[in-house]
Amino acid sequence: MGACVEEMAKAVQYGRVDFDPNARQFSGMATNANDPRIRVGALLPKPDTRSWAAYALLVALALAAYALLAITGLRLGMAWGWAFCEVAVVAIFIAWMLRRAGHSAISTGLETISLAYLFTVAGLVIQGPLMALPFPFTDALLSRMDRALGFDWWAFAQLFSNRWLWGAMFVAYASIIPQTFLLLLLLSASDRHVRAWQFVTASSLALGATMIVIPFFPADGSLALCGLKPGSPWLAKGVCDYGPIIHQLKDGQIKVLAGNALVGMVSMPSFHTALALQFIWGFWPYRWLRWPMVAFNILLICGTIVIASHYFVDLLGGAIIGLLAIRAATILGRVSEHESKPVN
């Protein structure tokens, strides 16, 4: 047995056997070190087979955004985020080359974070033309649904009247990008690459599903009468920024998507809620982070109501999408893992 292992090690050293550092197993194919195909293959970028679902969703989202911009007559203006898209694309290519060289942890972290950024930009771009589509506002419907469920926005908001508690909730609500990067770095560094790709796939599925639904439920938000500024002035600060922008998009007053027009405009379903549940799922394997992240993301979900002026039913819609996306991503991850295994 020892002699067999020694011979296999020599074979790898001199290029007679192909070894996949990601799969951590031999492909079982004898190769010739002088074969030009082997020399060329070592120089080619190596995407992760678990990434195809995410890339397919990103391409679909980009094509849909292009078509909707053409239909609505909107165009993209100058924004700082566009330049970083080019950086993200270059980073993905570097990640592929690093994976070819055997640096799977670094490549997974770099590629998943870059993809997450590109999805963020795509989501910001596509929601503009979606909100410009001629569908009526649904605040009355969503408000009736909340009342039918016995939910009182003002009573709920009063629970966070303490300035420090509200501040913690605001930090949690604004944390979706930092949380995404932290989670993907942690999963990659701890060799949980499957879960990293499942998270990217789940979040992109949730984003795609959200973008399909939102044009049918445009809303000013549960604080449509923002001028009242209920409670302390700081309580409702900034919660109604998106309502006037949606009105201007539908009225044709906004022709260029840039600056203040690139804000979150989602009501039903709540994408923040979907992501919060996916963060809890993503951090769950780490016992030292499990319950702190549960508490932090519960604050995030509360922030969607108090800070972002969501209706309670928006959260229910977001929760359903988020959980279904986790399930779908898990299934897709298992399929890609099965297909990537070598055939004996």
Question: Can you walk me through this structure?
Answer:
The chain contains 14 helices and 4 strands. The chain folds into 2 domains: 1-39, no CATH class; 47-339, no CATH class. It is 65% helix and 4% strand. The relative contact order is 0.13. The protein has helices at 2-13, 36-41, 52-72, 80-100, 104-132, 139-148, 153-158, 163-173, 176-189, 193-213, 242-251, 271-283, 287-306, 312-340, and strands at 17-20, 25-30, 75-76, 256-257. The two termini are 20 Å apart. The longest helix is centred in the middle third of the chain and has 29 residues, at 104-132. It has 344 residues and is mainly alpha-helical. A hairpin with a 4-residue loop joins strand 1 and strand 2 (25-30). The strands form 2 sheets. Strands 1-2 form a two-stranded antiparallel ribbon. Strands 3-4 form a two-stranded parallel ribbon.
Query: Which ranges are low-confidence, i.e. pLDDT below 50, for 5 or more consecutive residues?
Result: 7-31, 225-236, 338-344
What general form does the structure show? globular
Return the structural class: mainly alpha
Order of helices and strands: HEEHHEHHHHHHHHEHHH
Please render the helix and strand layout as text.
Blueprint: H1 2-13, E1 17-20, E2 25-30, H2 36-41, H3 52-72, E3 75-76, H4 80-100, H5 104-132, H6 139-148, H7 153-158, H8 163-173, H9 176-189, H10 193-213, H11 242-251, E4 256-257, H12 271-283, H13 287-306, H14 312-340
Parallel strand pairs: 3-4
Antiparallel strand pairs: 1-2
